[in-house]
Each structure stands twice: as structure tokens, then as C-alpha cells.
């Protein structure tokens, strides 16, 4: 028990140690060297990300309260990659004078929220699940309000906090009903005692799903998304839309597949409806957006709708396609956000109109943006095509042909508005295009990684096979 | 039999307190009154724990909610509002709509709850003495809570650091007073 | 076992038997509630009056005055006369105040201190409540009081009251931490929260001797932080007369003012009783090792006397504080708590754990 804790919980422990080290270094180094803590954090987190891929045995701890299996480790690794990219992109933002004196606290809080997601993914009972969820959402409000000198950012923080409190209320009520029905909050007890659907369980499941739908910003629980995304600093927006969304999607998958497989008939209809509503609303509202952050916010709502398709195929294939989709979604969305971040850092502009004629002055950034958008919409040969393709295959295999048809229609709508941005960059004339942007080496390397990723994760079959192998061990 | 009804009487008394003050909390037009009514709701909940012979939880409820959270709420009200302030009256349309929604929601939930057949637990009633609670809090076996207990401290740390970051006065805050 | 002579549970149980045999358990319980309630209210008021008198005399002697000395022998009826005066005084209605909260606030304060008062073990078997979470219960009950202060300050609609309430709120919330930690330090030594058990464990020696260094440290901390938590001088800047008139209860008059006054003194009494119970053996007589004769002589003094003597000694120390030291500023007050008491307390907690683990206590 004593030593196995360290090996089994190595990812959580490592991350927490890094977060605490950041805080510690921030205390001990003098003013001039504060910026260097970022490098330490980046290096340590890079090592942590790499170390996650070393195969280690998983296991159960704390009487089933914590469990980690290869699939959980894989999910954490996927999140790690995303967070590493976010860290790279945040370098220039953290150097801005208004943020510089609180940059290390930013890193600490960011890493702590990530550890919350870890605990949420590895939770073996509802208590740990809930605490993980809270760690992943309450400090997030602080991140959203980080540019507190802007009223928009403050508003985003408050909105996020209130919405997450409301959704937590739903969630907790659902969990308490589960406790009432089963007399336990351990997942293994729940699967054992709750053998057949009853109205009580249906009600509990409804509340649980509503709570999680808030976090995943599914329609009709999406109202906070656009405002929060718009108000938050760009880095935080990318973190919101990619990492935290990915984590909640994973957790939803784990909960539905491993804890409530018996109630498939109950929740599949709910997921079906949510998926249709989310895809349509997200896509239709995305068309109207003028601000690139709001635009990406609604596009991420729509993408969450696509993720739900994977949940309808209730065996390993479902989880595989979800992980695969989230991985590629992280890469593509972060590429888009990276370009937006570069533009914003250089010019302070974040409207789609400002991108007119972008290709003339910044051909490489424009190409990256185009690739990212193509990948988000699912155009071959970039990775997004494969992830969507597998997702649709999984849903079709489960027999949801109509849903796949709807999803395809939505992909077409999505293609339209993604192409609007591409058109703005490449075709729309602009007498005063944005000046040529030269971003710092961190952002450039992050964009480089995402571009490589967008190409290779789709084409290279070992990636998919690796995920498959990991999930099958589950 | 007599003692059971006595118990029940006490139970219904506190239930009535909770229900009445909950309604007052959400309908009061003055914010500090609402906070005070909330205090009574929370104290009523603590009374339930005492009725259930779970004194530890009751005291915890009083310390945390009455001594901690309500004090924080009242403090922030003290800093921000004035005795004369009232909430804006809510329009009839909104009132009816929200009443309908909450009534339907509550009715539906109650209907489900009252018709559910709960499985009575076979396990013996856990001993709620302080010693047992302390042991369970630091136990890493099944039904032990050391992991959540420790992990919550992470949340608190991040929240404290974040609160300081948000509340700290900074030179840049005053540079552009008219925001954006 | 001469100590059993003074066991009050024999009396209370015989009363209980008598009531149950006549009226049955439910009704008997109700009657007992009422009886105990009335009894405690009486004691509560009487002790409060005594403390007010004591404070006025002690303060006077420290300041080379005589203090109240006309009403009755040595002026002991002075406070009773004052109390009657307060009862008869007009309850001034404040216009433009929040009347409901203005009315409720004193009761919240009184309820908080009264609940804590109920758990005090005056002698063996002489306490209204003895929950197994004793100390925790006292802390929970006293934490309600601050809400009454905040409500009183806000609802009076007066700036003196509001500032006084804010100050006292910040003060109480901060110092509650130190009080709690000082108590927790002792709980490590006692291993129980139940007051009767804690006293029973001190049969062969008081905890202030048994726990030596950390116990003395936490005794001092408890006294300092407890004084601050009861809003008494030198921490009485919440009601600093020279700047805030009377702080949060500026606008109160008559009986409601008396409530605040009483609650403040009774909180001090509760604090002194907790300190006595935790460190000075509660109602346990002083025993010295193997001096059988001495111990027997001590046993003949009734526990109630022991308890009251100890409590009043502690109260005397607290009163000395008040009339000796000048009032702190708010920043001094907060830095005392957060920069000195809290770290010392945490260090003390660790020290106590080590001592208990290694068995270095007596």
C-alpha cells in the first residue's frame, strides 16, 4: 500500500509537486528572476508529459476511491499534451506588463485545475469525482477573471462562477439521489446494486447529466459559454474550450460506459437529443459571430455535440473514438487559438474582419489557421477528417443512421462558416491588412507541434492503434 | 409509542421552520434579511442532525455555515449595501413563470421520490462518535476519506492563491480607470 | 473515594426518576427542559451581574478609586439596581432602521452564549449538556454570536454601529482560528472532546502541568485570543468609546442593551470555564502526587467551589489585561493574530503532537 501509492498515483503526485514547486519558486526567487519560473515549469511539465507515456501498471487505491488503468493514463496524457501547448502559447501573454507580476500564480492555478481533472478521471466514487470537478472549475473562474483590469474579464469570471455553482447544484442533487437509490457512492457498489432502471434512477441520471452538460456546454446549458469565452484572456479561452471540455467528455464517457451501462436505454435518448440540439445550435450561431473568440466558442459547442456521437456506441470503440477525436480536436483548436493569440498579442484585434487580407502579410499564420479550420470541419487529408469519420462510423455501427445523417448535414454547415474565415484571410481585399507578425519562439514551436500533429495523427495509423491497445487493456 | 410522536413533533417543528424560512429567504426584498433567514434555515438543518444523534455533523453545520459562510455573506453585504436598499420588484409574468417552473419541478421530483422503493440498508448503523469519524477521515481503506480530505486542500490552496491574485491591488489597475 | 460525596448526578437522577414515575417519559422530558432552562437562565443572569460588579470593583481598585460601594454592603446590590433600571428604561425605536433585524440581533448573541453556557460542567454531574463533541459544540455555539454583532451593527443604520460591527466581525473571525487551534492542541493531549471525560482525566494532575510547555503556550494563546474573541480590552476596538461611542450596540437601549452587555460578560465566563476545564482540571481538586493527607483535605472542599475559584481566577487575569494594557489598533490587532499567534499556534500543535507521540507528557 505505502509504496504502491507513489507508483500508481505518479501522474497526480507529479503534477501536484510541479504546481507546488512553481508556488515555492515564486516565493523564493527575487523579482528579476520571476519570469524564469515559467521556464522551470515548462521544462518540468514537459518531462511530466513525456513520463506519462512510460508504461506502468495501474491499480486501485483507497478502497476503490481511486483507480487508474491504461485508458485513464492515456486520457491524462492527451490532456497533458494540450496543456503543454497551452503553456507554450501563454508565454508571450504572461510577459505582458499587467500579467507579469502574477504569471507564476497563473501557472500554479492552471496546473491545479489540471490535477482536478486527473482526479475526476481517476475517481472511483462520486466524492472524488465531485471534488475533482470542483478543483477543475472553481479556480477556473479565477483564470477567467485574470485580466481583471478589463471589465469583460471580470464579468467572465463571475459568470463562470455562478454558472458552475448552479450546475454543481444540479449535479449534487443527482448524486444525492444516487446515494438514496443505492446506499453507496462507490462506483462498483452502484453498478452492483442498481441493476434495473427505475424512475428514481432516471431522475438522478437527469440531474447528473444536466450538471455535466453545463460543464460541457451542451445546448440548452450553453448560455454562459460565449460570454465567458469572449471575456477570458485568449490563453484561458483556449484552455476552457479544449482541455476542460476534453476532460469532461472523457469523464462522461467513463461514467456512462463503466458505471451506468445498465441504463443505456435511459441515457442514450438524452444524449441523442442533446447531440442534435447542440450541433444545430452551435453551428447556426457560429455563422453569426463577428468576434473570433465567440466564433470559436460556438464552434466548440458544436464540436461537443459531435463528441456525444461517440458516446452512443457503448463499448470500447466508443471510448477509442472519443479519445481520438478529443486528441485531434485539441490539436486543431489550439492551432486556431494559437494564431488568434498571435494576432491578438501583436495587434490587440480579435474580430474576424480584422483577418481580411491576412494571407498577404502573414502567409504562414494564415496557412496554419486554414489547416486548423479544415481540421475542425473535417476535410481530408488533415486529421479532423479521420476523427470525424471514425466518430460517424461508431455511431453508425450502433445503428444511429439518422443521427449520422444529421451530423453530416451539420458538418456541411460548419464547413460553410469555417470557410468564411478562410475566405476572409485569403480572398477578401483589405487596404490595411494586419502588419507582419513575428511571435516569440514558444508560440511558434507550439504552432509547429500542432501543425505536425494535425497532419500526422490522421495519417499515421499507429496513433489510433496505440489508443486502441490502451483502451482494450481497460 | 409516546416518545415516537414526541420525536415526530420535533421533526415537524424544525421542518416547518426550514420550509418557512426558505420561502422567506427567496421572497425577501432586503438582502440582509434574506441572509438572516438563510441562517435560520441552516440552523434548522443542524437541528435535524442533532435529532438524528449525529451531534458532530450538527456542530459542523453550525460552525461552517452559521459561523463561516453566513458570516462571509453578511460581511460582503455590509461592505456593499445599505439599510434602505430593496430589490427591484419582480414582474408578474416572471413571478408566475418561475412559480410554475419550480412547482412543476418540485412536484415531479416529489412524485418520483415518494413512489420510489428505497432499498433498506443491511449494514448496521455506523457509530458516529468523534473517534470513529476521526479514524474514517484518515483511513485509506474502503469507506475511508483520506484521499478526498487531502485533495480538498489542493482546492483550498488554489482558491486562496486565486483570491489573493484577484483581490490584490496592483499598479496597473489604476492606469486605465475607465476600463478598456 | 470521597469525591463521590459531591456527585450531583445522584440528585438529578432522582429528580428524573420522580418525574418519569409521575408523568411518563415525554412529559417528564418537557418538564425537565423547562426546569433546566429556567434554572440556567437564572444562573446566567446572576453570574452576569456578579461579573459586572466584579469588573467595576477591580477596575476601580486598579485605577485607585473605590467603585460602587453604597448600595448594600460593599455595593454588591449596585448592579442589581442597575439591572432593574435597564429593565424599566424605554426601548427606543429607531426610525429608518431595519426593525426586524434590529430586534433579532441581541437574541442571536444571547442564544450563542447561552448554548455554550449549557455545556459547562460546574461539578460532577452538574451540567445541562454533555455531548461527546463538547469542546467542538462550544466552539460552534460561540460562532453564532458574531452574526448577531454584524446584524446589530448593520440594522442600526448608524455609521458608528456599522464600523464597530465590521471591526468586531473581522476580529472575531480571525481570532476564532487561534482559539480553535489552541483548543485542538489540547485535544491532542486529551484524546477526547467530551468535557466530563477531560476533567476525569485530570484526577491525578491538571493538564497545564501534564502537558507542560505546549500546554502552557496554548493556555496563554487561548487567553489572548479568547479575550479578543469576546471583544474585551485591550482588543475592544470594536466598541472603542473614544471613536465609536459604543460600537455595534450604540443604538440599543434598555433591555436589549442589557442583552449585549450580559452576553459579553457571559462569553468571558464561558471562555474562563473552558480554560479552567481544559487546563486547570475543571472542578477537580488540587492533588499533589502522593501527599495523601493533603489530597484528602483538598477533596473535602466541594467541587463547585473549586470550579468557581478557578474560573474567577482566570477572569481576574482577563480583567487585569483589560485595565492594564492600552487598546490595539486594527492593524496591530490583525498582525498579532496572523503573524504571531497563528504561526506560534501551528508550531505548538506540531510540538504537542510530537510530545504526545513520544510520550513525553506526564
How would you concisely characterize the structure shown here?
The complex is a heterotrimer of chains A (474), B (180) and C (362). With 180 residues, chain B is mostly helical.
Number of E-state strands of chain A: 2
The secondary-structure element order of chain A is HHHEEHHHHHHHHHHHHHHHHHH
Share of residues in strands of chain A: under 5%
Name the pair of protein chains with the most residues at their interface, and give those residue counts.
A-B, 53 and 40 residues
| Low-confidence runs of at least 5 consecutive residues of chain A | none
What spatial order of strands do you see in the largest sheet of chain A?
A: 1-2
Based on CA atoms alone, the radius of gyration of chain A comes out at 21 Å
User: If you consult CATH, what is the topology of the largest domain in chain B?
Assistant: Four Helix Bundle (Hemerythrin (Met), subunit A)
Structural class of chain B: mainly alpha
Q: How many alpha or pi helices of chain A?
A: 21
What share of the residues of chain B does DSSP label as strand, in percent? under 5%
**What is the string of SSEs of chain B from the N terminus onward?**
HHHHHH
Helix content of chain A: over 70%
How would you classify the quaternary structure? Answer: heterotrimer
Give the N-terminus to C-terminus distance of chain B in angstroms: 71 Å
Number of strands of chain B: 0
Number of domains of chain B: 3
